[in-house]
Write a structure and sequence with these properties.
Blueprint (H helix, E strand, L loop, with lengths): L40 H13 L4 E12 L5 E7 L6 E7 H7 L8 E11 L4 E11 L2 H17 L18 E5 L4 H13 L5 E5 L7 H13 L6 E6 L13 H8 L5 E5 L7 H5 L2 E2 L3 H8 L3 H35 L1 H4 L1 H44 L1 H6 L4 E4 L16 E5 L4 E5 L3
Parallel strand pairs: 3-5, 6-7, 6-8, 8-9, 9-10
Antiparallel strand pairs: 1-2, 1-4, 2-3, 4-5, 11-12, 12-13
């Protein structure tokens, strides 16, 4: 198949400037297929191949999922997988090219290769034909990780302000780990030893290799969508830097950052720090440490509750004792020890006041009596009755007028004479 000047090709290998062709190589007015004039499979296949051929030679980065070396054959087949997606392509190359660029290449290794995409019309498959293969070294991997780390940090994926606190006692724990792995056993065993009633939803995935990142991201989405899961643990045992590369993948880091559920990273040992540790809400040094962080220790909590109860009891007893002491002090006061004393004291005071009041009243009565007696004596001394008692008499005319002179009465007039005792009637005759 050969391409024309504009890149459009014909089934017969000839190209036209306008790119319009028919199944038999003849041009149509608009160059499009119609229900009346459809394209045969060979034409579609040839057109697809022509479009793919336009891409030319490219550099491709990927992870080797499979290597097939046939004895005696000069061609080597590789399956190159995207580390962050469930996509793969077949790569064909010469054995000499592989031995020159990556003689120790193994499955799971990261490679950069120079290849040209090719479309095989007979099988309808797409593959890459490589003429140069470079195995990515550890130094280059670390440089890539450092660059990605700076990028994610600049975007705020490591920001401590966005990290969420783990629930004190989660209703259900989501666990993403390898099947029958030591990490799974450590998390489950230690968590249940600390809190026997803890509930786990475990999803087993590949934790290394080309399929690790897609599997982990898929499991993460499933657990994050489960409303019963309160915390998610991603756990893996120790390993080399290359073994832990999936946990520094950008796609996984962004998926963890987007989770609504708190995520705990428990990857490798204390010294292992994949990028997932920086993005997760909590970093556990080991899977065992993750078990200690996600659930409380029942024995420790019971001990703490006992201590709290003891402190509370001591505080209550201290309060009661203090109040009892205050009551005892109050009761020891005389006024409360012998309440009648106060009544008796007041009774004495009342009696004293009554005596003083009686004496004062009596004194005043005696004084008033003396005054009255003296006044009475003076009154009696001045009273006409006293004069009468000394032998004097009061002479009054008939009209009651007191006679003070003889000229005040006429001869034959009637007079009334009052004596100290009784009275007399007299007639004036001279």
């Amino acid at each position: 198949m050969s391409a024309g000047e504009d890149g459009r090709s014909r089934p017969d290998g000839q190209s036209r400037p306008d790119g319009q062709s028919t199944p038999d190589g003849q041009s149509t007015p608009d160059g499009r297929s119609t229900p009346e004039e459809p394209w045969p499979v060979r034409v579609v296949s040839q057109k697809v191949g022509a479009w793919i051929a336009r891409l030319g030679w490219v550099w491709v980065d990927g992870q080797v999922a499979q290597i097939s070396r046939r004895p005696g054959a000069s061609t080597v087949f590789l399956t190159l997988r995207d580390p962050s997606a469930d996509l793969s392509l077949t790569v064909t190359t010469n054995r000499d090219v592989l031995d020159a660029g990556a003689p120790e290449l193994r499955e799971g290794a990261r490679v950069v290769l120079h290849a040209k995409p090719e479309f095989y019309a007979a099988r309808g498959t797409l593959s890459l034909r490589a003429d140069e293969i470079r195995q990515v070294g550890l130094g280059e991997l670390l440089a890539r990780l450092e660059k990605l780390k700076k990028l994610l940090a600049a975007e705020g994926l490591f920001d401590r302000a966005r990290k969420r606190r783990l629930p004190f006692l989660p209703g259900r724990v989501g666990l993403i780990t390898g099947r029958a792995s030591a990490a799974e056993r450590d998390v489950l065993t230690n968590a249940r030893r600390r809190w026997p009633a803890v509930d786990f939803r475990t999803i087993n995935v590949a934790v290394q290799g080309p399929s690790a990142v897609p599997d982990i991201v898929g499991a993460l989405k499933v657990l994050d969508a489960d409303p019963a899961v309160d915390v998610i643990v991603i756990a893996r045992g120790g390993g080399g830097i290359e073994d832990l590369l999936p946990f520094s993948d950008e796609t996984l880091c962004r998926a963890v950052f987007a989770c609504r559920t708190p995520v705990v990273s428990a990857i490798g040992h204390e010294t292992d720090t994949p990028l997932l540790d920086y993005v997760a809400d909590v970093r556990a040094s080991t899977p065992t440490d993750a078990a200690k962080r996600i659930v409380p220790d029942l024995t420790e909590e019971v001990r703490l509750i006992g201590q709290a109860r003891s402190r509370l009891e001591r505080a209550v007893r201290h309060l009661v004792d203090r109040e009892q002491h205050r009551i005892d002090l109050l009761r020891s006061r005389p006024v409360l020890a012998r309440p009648q004393v106060m009544v008796e004291q007041r009774a004495v005071e009342v009696s004293a006041l009554r005596d003083r009041a009686g004496r004062s009243l009596e004194h005043r009565l005696r004084g008033a009596t003396d005054d009255l007696r003296h006044t009475l004596a003076r009154l009696r001394a001045l009273s006409p009755a006293a004069t009468l008692e000394r032998g004097y008499a009061i002479v009054q005319r008939a009209d009651g007028h007191v006679v003070r002179a003889a000229s005040e009465v006429a001869k034959g007039g009637s007079l009334r004479v009052r004596l100290a005792e009784g009275e007399l009637t007299a007639t004036v005759d001279g």
